[in-house]
Amino acid sequence: MTKINSLYLLLAVALVQLYVPAKMVVDNETIVRNGTVHKFKTAPIDPSDPFRGRYILLNFEASSVNVINPDEWDNNEEVFLQLTHDESGFSEIAGVSKTLPDGISDFVKAKVSYVTYDSIPKIMIDYPFARFYMEESKAPKAEEIVFKAAIDTNSITYAIVYIKNGTAVVTDVMVNNHSLKELATGADEK
């Protein structure tokens, strides 16, 4: 390989390394600017390990769907969740299908985590937005806030999720209508 070919190859690799993360950022910004906002109420977070590295692991109350025949569903299968809002404005699952819903714009792609065979069979949902990444320096304070919110039964915690064409982006986690990002920096302390 000549020096010129090696230089072109190195340049091509460098361009790909810049293109991939830039495309991810642009795609996420497009969803946030043009997508539909949803509020997913979070369930209590496992107090033994709510953080792994620099993100918060989110569990959602809307995490299961009743099904008639559990044998029709497989673990790790991609599904489409039709979404709606409850009377308080929080997102709920209105239906599930294996195919892209026709004429419905409010849906998100997810996966079947596992299937239960209880008296009322259910599929448990694995959302693609179950991680909320934070700046590392804010993580310990955010962890403390989340622990306190999980213990307090009067506390309401939810994720702000923008959804467009089945793809979702989490922009913030709210604790009693206050941004976790701001609470973790002390900007929203009372």
Written overview of the protein:
This protein has 190 residues and is α+β, with helices and mostly antiparallel strands. It is 27% helix and 35% strand. The protein has helices spanning 3-34, 139-151, 180-185; strands spanning 36-41, 51-52, 55-57, 64-66, 78-85, 91-97, 107-116, 122-126, 131-133, 157-164, 167-175, 178-179. A 5-stranded antiparallel sheet has the order 4-8-7-5-6, with no helix packed on it. The protein has a 4-stranded antiparallel sheet with strand order 1-10-11-12. It has a 3-stranded antiparallel sheet with strand order 2-3-9, with no helix packed on it. A hairpin with a 2-residue loop joins strand 11 and strand 12 (178-179). The radius of gyration is 20 Å and the shape is globular.
Outline of the structure:
The chain has helices spanning 3-34, 139-151, 180-185, and strands at 36-41, 51-52, 55-57, 64-66, 78-85, 91-97, 107-116, 122-126, 131-133, 157-164, 167-175, 178-179. With 190 residues, the chain is of the alpha+beta class.
